[in-house]
Design a protein that fits this description.
single chain, 801 residues, alpha+beta, Substrate Binding Domain Of Dnak, Chain:A, Domain 2, PH-domain like, Annexin V, domain 1, 7-stranded antiparallel beta sheet, 3-stranded antiparallel beta sheet, 24 helices, 15 strands, 53% helix, 8% strand, flat, disordered C terminus
Length: 801
């Protein structure tokens, strides 16, 4: 049974969390007992097996002696000798079997018990200790008298320090629980599967008996690969969430309480409060309160039935209480009784009072409107880039990506073994794989193959288009060109794993089946690609006419008096209610994102875009020598992914430098070609996004000069340095501002702002600004799915560098 604990719930330290922790601890204790028992039984089995082997060797020795005594009978002698040899081989198999049992069952499970379960127990001790300290600090803080300020300060400081320590320890404890629960299945199955494989080898002569079990073992083998992948992915996601939550500002725990009348579980607000008993002693007890279904209820433990304090909030009032000794008290009064409660701070008291008042108002409103709730949906984000109110297109995941990739001819079967219905892919090769071949590809290393799931992972549009432009048919024509000529057999799905592994390494690592071109063939290929690039350059489809943009307008963002408040950052404006709006342009609003323009009257856009610097026409000239790197160079410009893949298969260096052409690289030529997919292909194959040419310009410089917004977005996402300056001391932002390209100015400024925000948040920051994430996602989808919306300015062939 797999039990996971929510990180957010553990910070509340609610009864639900305590109940889950109790269940987890019991489950782990039982797991340890069962594993210890299994290890002891394994040790006894191995000892008994060794004794059996010793007796069996004596028996085989007796057979050999009998065979030697029967030298006169050739049939008996040869038969007994063969029997003795077979039995001796079985003894050797037995020895191997027991050694495998020693490694797979005893060693692996003992390691799991000693390492993972020990870490869980240590984390549990720290958690139990800090829980008691926190409870003591809360009680001491609540009991601090109002008129003794030094005791109040001391109790408050102790409570703050204890809470901080509790948050760190409980997060670590929950992480350890979730990692253990995720890992236990793979560890147990891995050890048992290894042990069963040893049995399969031992009973090789009894194959008919094991053939009935083999499909199940093969299925477990496939599931184990998936379990390892899932466990690693879950661990990575949990560690990222753990790190993200740990970096949040929890200096004030009061911020976690919010009133939400539309909560999915029907609980508008919940949290701990001290409640004064109605007995003669007027004792105070800490209880878990919640507002739900227009009622105020509390409970001591999660398993207890809630006790209703107020049946109907419409009949109640709530007020502050300042006439008693305790601080932060408030009272809920109904026609029949009153309930005195105490919060942990003034901010929490105000939050609870406001929540009760809102619940009272909500109860009256719902009653007056026959139970129909008002529409509480928030308005769309002011930072949205969508036009016409259309919903954003999200990154494809699951069946959508699978259907698109499998629609390519040849992709419905595994590229390497032919297994139908593949669910995995190599994104830098552009092929689909079955789960067994994907495991082998993953073992090759990411410099040879980057494996991703077609159903579990999220696919960005440019990566999905890359998969659709290559495919198994194209890649196999390159990497299996000489397979039949060399007489190499392509593996089948039922073949042993070691045969498949040997074939895949020969195919992609050694490139044994790739046909090497002659010098004349290579020359013809390069010349053909250069001519193809020339046709693309002169084609009207390559650079479509673009209408001049309208006069830039700022997005409206005003307060109730119609005034707009500007922040220090010229890319953001703050409205009177504290909300933020982008001054920069979006794909649906042709506004100019320029700080200078924001402080001065708008300047009209030019009807045509002048070149930011002297540019030259692409001219092919006879090089000193032809190489696969030169083929990759011109194929990148000609936007021919099959030729690019072929050049890499022939050994082309992805960061090859053309010393005869300003030291440009294939990635810079891909920018010249104007294709987003060719850039993505080179980046997936380890192209350097910051490599500069002789003019000191990297791919980001060239994409900015040409106004290729989609490529600018891609390079920024892949870590391009926007602060790099060329020999003219111009950065990409300088070039974009001179060219009045509002979209690229927006992207560069947003990337800069996000970088500064992440640096301010600390070295472990993960997400950055949400506005940055949303806008870059919109630009990414638009560049891949509707690039015409980004064609703001008219460009001509003479402006191509």
């Amino acid at each position: 049974m797999k039990i996971t604990v929510d990180f957010e719930e553990c910070l509340k330290d609610s009864p639900r969390f305590r109940a889950t922790i109790e269940e987890v601890e019991g489950d782990v204790c039982e797991l340890e007992s069962k594993l210890d028992k299994l290890v002891k039984l394994c040790i006894g089995m191995i000892d008994a097996g060794k004794a059996y082997n010793a007796a069996n060797r004596q028996f085989v020795s007796g057979i050999r002696e009998l065979a030697q005594q029967s030298t006169r009978d050739e049939v008996i002698e040869s038969s007994l000798t063969k029997f003795a040899e077979s039995l001796q081989e079985m003894i050797n198999y037995h020895t191997i079997l027991f050694d495998q049992a020693q490694r797979s069952i005893k060693t692996q499970l003992q390691t799991f018990i000693k390492d993972d379960l020990r870490k869980f127990k240590e984390a549990k001790k720290h958690f139990d200790k800090v829980s008691e300290e926190k409870e003591t600090a809360l009680i001491k803080n609540a009991q601090a008298p109002r008129n003794k300020q030094h005791e109040v300060e001391e109790a408050t400081n102790i409570l703050t320090a204890t809470r901080k320590c509790f948050r760190h320890i409980v997060l670590d404890y929950v992480l350890q629980i979730n990692v253990l629960q995720s890992k236990r299945r793979s560890e147990i199955l891995k050890s048992m599967l290894s042990f069963m494989h040893a049995h399969l080898t031992f009973f090789h002569q009894g194959y008919d008996l094991f053939s009935e079990l083999q499909p199940l073992m093969k299925q477990l083998g496939g599931q184990l690969d998936q379990l390892v992948v899932d466990a690693a992915k879950e661990k990575r996601d949990m560690e990222q969430k753990h790190s993200t939550i740990q970096q949040k500002d929890f200096s004030n725990d009061d911020s976690k309480l919010e009133y939400n009348v539309d909560a999915d579980n029907g609980i508008a607000m919940e949290g701990y409060l001290f409640k004064r008993a109605s007995n003669a002693f007027k004792t105070w007890n800490r209880r878990w309160f919640s507002i739900q279904n227009n009622q105020l209820v509390y409970q001591k433990k999660f398993k207890d039935n809630p006790t209703v304090v107020v049946e109907d909030l419409r009949l109640c009032t709530v007020k502050h209480c300042e006439d008693i000794e305790r601080r932060f008290c408030f009272e809920v009064v109904s026609p029949t009784k009153s309930c005195m409660m105490q919060a942990d701070s003034e901010k929490l008291r105000q939050a609870w009072i406001k929540a009760v008042q809102n619940s009272i108002a909500s109860a009256f409103r719902d009653k007056g409107e026959d139970g129909e709730k008002l529409d509480r949906k928030s308005s769309t984000s002011t930072g949205s880039l969508d036009s016409g109110g259309e919903p954003k297109e999200k990154s494809l995941k699951g069946e959508s990506a699978l259907q698109k990739v499998l629609a390519i001819p040849g992709n419905t079967c595994c590229c390497d073994c032919g297994q139908p219905d593949p669910r995995w892919a190599s994104i830098n090769l552009g092929i689909t794989l079955c789960i067994q071949c994907s495991g082998i590809h993953r073992s090759l290393g990411v410099h040879f193959s980057k494996v991703r799931s077609l159903t579990l992972d999220t696919w960005e549009p440019e990566l999905l288009k890359l998969m659709c432009e290559l495919g198994n048919g194209v890649i196999n024509q390159i990497y299996e060109a000489r397979r039949e000529e060399l007489g190499a057999r392509k593996p089948q799905p039922a073949d042993p794993r070691h045969e498949m592994e040997a074939y895949i390494k020969a195919k992609y690592v050694d490139r044994r089946f790739v046909r090497r071109p002659s010098d004349e063939e290579l020359r013809n290929k390069v010349v053909s690609l250069s001519k193809q690039e020339k046709r693309l350059s002169s084609s009207s489809d390559h650079l479509p006419p673009r209408p001049p943009p309208p006069t830039p307008k700022l997005r409206p963002g005003s307060n109730s008096s119609g005034q707009t408040v500007k922040s220090a950052d010229s890319g953001i404006q703050n409205s009177a209610d504290g909300s933020r709006e982008m001054l920069a342009t979006t794909p649906s609003s042709n506004s100019l994102a320029d700080a200078d323009a924001a402080e001065s009257p708008p300047m009209p856009m030019p009807a045509t875009l002048p070149p930011p610097s002297p540019c030259k026409e692409m001219v092919f000239y006879e090089p000193k020598e032809y190489s696969p790197g030169l083929q990759l160079y011109w194929a990148s410009c000609a936007r021919s992914l099959p030729d690019m893949a072929e050049a890499l298969a022939h050994g082309a260096e992805v960061n090859w430098v053309n010393t005869e052409d300003d030291k440009r690289t294939p990635l810079i030529m891909a920018v010249q070609g104007g294709s987003l997919v060719t850039c993505e292909f080179l980046l997936q194959n380890a192209a350097n996004v910051n490599q500069q040419d002789a003019q000191g310009r990297g791919p980001l410089h060239h994409a900015t000069m040409l106004g290729h917004t989609g490529q600018v977005c891609l390079f920024l996402k892949r870590g391009a340095n926007q602060n790099a300056a060329d020999i003219d001391e111009k950065t990409p932002l300088t070039i974009a501002v001179e060219a009045a390209n509002a979209d690229i100015v927006t992207l560069l400024r947003l990337a800069k702002m996000n970088e500064e925000m992440r640096e301010a948040e600390g070295p472990y920051s993960q997400s950055g600004d949400e506005t940055y994430q949303d806008i870059f996602q919109d630009f990414t989808h638009m560049a891949s799915n509707d690039p015409e919306k980004l064609n703001r300015y008219q460009q001509y062939d003479s402006q191509r560098p």
